């Protein structure tokens, strides 16, 4: 008697193949670029939300720099230089009023008008500085009253007392140049940037910021 041993044969209906484990994406910390972008966005948002404070600080810094050039650099300002300083005095005053108004019940209503007013002031300052830079480049003539006004150095006063002639600072001569631009040229760029930032702060949708 012969015993037949059936050997397993390959059939279509065999056991299901064992799938190889699939690599699962592991999410780690966000890339450095994403974090940096988010940080920059948050910083810009905070600056725009508190723009009157920033405008006041920048105006004070620009005035401080101008007086430092005059005091320590012995660079007496011309008439156009003094007018550019007046722009920052006006901007700083408006920013200070805006900060005070932001603590009032009308804060939400006055935020936009004050920021737009700052934009107009800084834009005027940019135009004035650009005009002064053009005078320095001899592109057009400067005003006839282009003198340093009452800003005279101590040496000039001594020379006047001795009967000497004092040459007032001329608007068409750059007293300081850096990377091809005078102080008026750099001021034009800075004022234009401040005008754009003020306009952006004025047009943005207000969002609550924690005090």
Topology:
Blueprint: H1 32-49, H2 51-71, H3 79-101, H4 107-136, H5 154-161, E1 177-178, E2 181-182, H6 183-203
Antiparallel strand pairs: 1-2
**Hey, roughly how much beta strand do the residues contain?**
under 5%
Count the beta strands. Answer: 2
Helix content: 55-70%
CATH class division: Mainly Alpha
CATH fold-type name:
Bromodomain-like
Order of helices and strands: HHHHHEEH
Main β-sheet, spatial strand arrangement: 1-2
Count of domains: 1
Mean pLDDT reading = 78
Characterize the largest beta sheet: strand count, sense, and whether it forms a barrel.
2 strands, antiparallel
Gyration radius from CA atoms, angstroms: 33 Å
CATH architecture: Up-down Bundle
Contiguous runs where pLDDT drops below 50 for at least 5 residues: 148-153
Question: Can you tell me about this structure?
Answer:
A hairpin with a 2-residue loop joins strand 1 (177-178) and strand 2 (181-182). The chain starts with 31 loop residues before the first helix and ends in an 8-residue tail after the last helix. Helix 2 (51-71) packs antiparallel against helix 3 (79-101) and helix 4 runs antiparallel to helix 6. With 211 residues, the chain is an all-alpha fold. The chain contains six helices and two strands; from the N terminus they run αααααββα. It is 57% helix and 2% strand. It has one domain (40-203): Bromodomain-like, CATH 1.20.1550. Strands 1-2 form a two-stranded antiparallel ribbon.
């Amino acid at each position: 008697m012969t015993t037949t041993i059936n050997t397993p044969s390959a059939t279509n209906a065999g056991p299901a193949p064992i799938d190889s484990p699939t690599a699962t994406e592991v999410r780690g910390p966000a890339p450095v670029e994403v974090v940096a972008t988010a940080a920059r966005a948050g910083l810009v948002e905070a600056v725009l939300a508190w723009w009157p404070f920033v405008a006041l600080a920048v105006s004070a810094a620009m005035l401080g720099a101008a007086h430092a050039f005059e005091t320590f650099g012995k660079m007496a300002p011309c008439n156009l230089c003094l007018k550019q300083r007046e722009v920052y005095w006006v901007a700083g005053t408006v920013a200070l009023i805006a900060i005070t108004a932001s603590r009032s019940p009308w804060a939400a209503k006055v935020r936009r008008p004050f920021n737009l007013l700052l934009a107009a002031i800084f834009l005027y300052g940019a135009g004035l500085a650009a005009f002064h830079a053009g005078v320095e480049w001899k592109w057009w003539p400067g005003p006839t009253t282009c003198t340093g006004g009452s800003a005279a150095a101590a040496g000039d006063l001594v020379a006047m007392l001795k009967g000497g002639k004092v040459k007032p600072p001329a608007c068409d001569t750059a007293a300081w140049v850096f990377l091809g631009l005078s102080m008026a040229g750099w001021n034009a760029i800075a004022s234009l940037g401040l005008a754009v930032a003020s306009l952006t702060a004025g047009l943005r949708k207000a969002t609550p910021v924690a005090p």
